[in-house]
Prior knowledge:
By secondary structure, the protein is α+β, with helices and mostly antiparallel strands. 33% of the residues lie in helices and 27% in strands. The longest helix has 21 residues, at 64-84.
Amino acid sequence: MKFxxxxxxxxxxxxxxxxxxxxxxxLDAVAVSDGMGGHQAGEIASRLAVETLEEMLLSxxxxxxxxxxxxxxxxxxxxxxxxxxxxxxxxxGCTLVAAxxxxxxxxxxxxxxxxxxxxxxxxxxxxxxxxSFVAELVRRGAITPEEAKTHPRRNLITRAIGTETxxxxxxxxxxxxxxxxxxxxxxxxxxxxxxAEMAAFLRNCTDPDATCAALIQRALAAGSRDNITVVLAxxxxxxx
Length: 240
């Protein structure tokens, strides 16, 4: 597997995004988290979620689907407990999208509106489903995906890590092959760039680190005012 990741504060006063690239002899995993909450609590929430996810996956990943489900539940518990013990962190939470990778498939999970995309060399496909107010309106046919990008409530998420005592992640199991790529990102990227534009960057990718940086610069040029985080995972036909 080949990996790259980059996060950018952008026009925000501080960066509330976190990401994970985990590459060991027995486990390949990636994650992105976008925090929310006052007094920099969002930054704490996303960091706790990613750290808890990493710890849980390292301790047991023999069954990837069960491991991801348990890790998300534990991440939610850790963030919710920290928020309940500190008035300044009350109500803090975060999104979380993650995947465990093998040579021929990946198992993904998400809570919130940070996304995972699968690129097969030609087409970019959003694998995860946003847990957001506007995504629900799009699913109902009430607004178009284009209208969702400028909707006044586009930042309202309907499911988050840490805001409730218990949360359940959506789980996706997908095949992939040598040459395919995964793109994980916060909405600072996918909220301003459409699928065709992101696919063009991946289609021309020869250096994953440079592609992460280029995607972020393009999002900033397109008017993103949020933190922007991008993680790429490439299937090179093996785990080395």
